[in-house]
């Protein structure tokens, strides 16, 4: 399946999680074997040119995409978790979402200075989560110059915010609006 064909597999849910937000739901893509396989193959082709050592994936849907991609690339996966999910001391970053606030945490023992990390998530909207992940990873000394997403919502400016932070951004598909 081409990225253009994959667009039709993404479910659109209006007014979720609150009125005025149009939620792009990739669970329909994940549940479709050929679509998921094609998605990972397309992302692996993009990531293969980058030369990363490790993938950092954002909880929760980013874990699904990141783990499959890490498997395809034969590299490790570092989870960027919600608070209280890791059994060891963590470092964290608080950030704003388009519909609230959140926090990401990381086990700093998983990183080494200069480690080349690819940031992966299912979707980029305002960029709050991705920028928090970037800050968290760079704060541990990781080198993060690239990010991959299945879906970009370019009207919300998240990919541009990452580019302004020195990150090359790629996605398989984009949807107008929010």
TrEMBL record:
<feature type="domain" description="Phosphoribosyltransferase">
    <location>
        <begin position="51"/>
        <end position="144"/>
    </location>
</feature>
<protein>
    <recommendedName>
        <fullName>Adenine phosphoribosyltransferase</fullName>
        <ecNumber>2.4.2.7</ecNumber>
    </recommendedName>
</protein>
<keyword id="KW-0328">Glycosyltransferase</keyword>
<dbReference type="GO" id="GO:0006166">
    <property type="term" value="P:purine ribonucleoside salvage"/>
</dbReference>
<comment type="similarity">
    <text>Belongs to the purine/pyrimidine phosphoribosyltransferase family.</text>
</comment>
<comment type="function">
    <text>Catalyzes a salvage reaction resulting in the formation of AMP, that is energically less costly than de novo synthesis.</text>
</comment>
<keyword id="KW-0963">Cytoplasm</keyword>
<dbReference type="InterPro" id="IPR000836">
    <property type="entry name" value="PRTase_dom"/>
</dbReference>
<comment type="pathway">
    <text>Purine metabolism; AMP biosynthesis via salvage pathway; AMP from adenine: step 1/1.</text>
</comment>
<dbReference type="InterPro" id="IPR050054">
    <property type="entry name" value="UPRTase/APRTase"/>
</dbReference>
<dbReference type="GO" id="GO:0006168">
    <property type="term" value="P:adenine salvage"/>
</dbReference>
<dbReference type="GO" id="GO:0044209">
    <property type="term" value="P:AMP salvage"/>
</dbReference>
<keyword id="KW-0808">Transferase</keyword>
<dbReference type="GO" id="GO:0016208">
    <property type="term" value="F:AMP binding"/>
</dbReference>
<dbReference type="GO" id="GO:0002055">
    <property type="term" value="F:adenine binding"/>
</dbReference>
<dbReference type="InterPro" id="IPR005764">
    <property type="entry name" value="Ade_phspho_trans"/>
</dbReference>
<dbReference type="Pfam" id="PF00156">
    <property type="entry name" value="Pribosyltran"/>
</dbReference>
<dbReference type="GO" id="GO:0003999">
    <property type="term" value="F:adenine phosphoribosyltransferase activity"/>
</dbReference>
<comment type="subunit">
    <text>Homodimer.</text>
</comment>
<keyword id="KW-0660">Purine salvage</keyword>
<dbReference type="InterPro" id="IPR029057">
    <property type="entry name" value="PRTase-like"/>
</dbReference>
<dbReference type="GO" id="GO:0005737">
    <property type="term" value="C:cytoplasm"/>
</dbReference>
